Amino acid sequence: MINTETMKEISNFIEWCNREGVKPSNGSVLMNYFKERNSRNKNQLSIAKMKGVMAEKGINQGDIAKFIGMSQMQISRKFSGKTDFSVTELLGIAELLGVEPQYFFTYQVDNVSTENRNTV
Questions:
Q1: Model confidence over 48-98: pLDDT tens digits?
Q2: b/e map of 19-31 (b: 16 or more CB within 10 Å)?
Q3: Is 69 exposed, middle or buried (0-12, 13-18, 19+ CB in 10 A)?
């Protein structure tokens, strides 16, 4: 189930696409949206947090790749930071791991890093 915060994020993305005059289906559009949003909010995806939950649950990158419908090579590139995760991919990973998507983010507030403290 998608929570209210996730629905708001999706709505923000669609509004941004409309403002920019671009189609939301383009992967580079999604990356540009997150780059702009992250430069304002200073939210950072924490791969370490994702890997920690994976270890706790006994789930590996291959399991995630299969669940979200991509190759092992593609998922490996995402976990190594060579390419970004899409919103859809993050939603799928969160579903598989049984956590809310925002759990994977670290937030910057007044130059002080704070982690999302939601429990797994």
A1: 889 999 999 999 999 999 999 999 999 999 888 888 888 889 899 999 999
A2: eeeeeeeeeebbe
A3: exposed
Residue 59 near residue 97, CB atoms below 8 Å: yes
Cα-Cα end-to-end distance for the chain: 16
CATH of the domain at 64: 1.10.260.40
pLDDT at 82: 84
The residue range of the domain holding 66 is 4-115
* Beta-sheet strands, E only, within the chain: 43-45, 105-109, 112-115
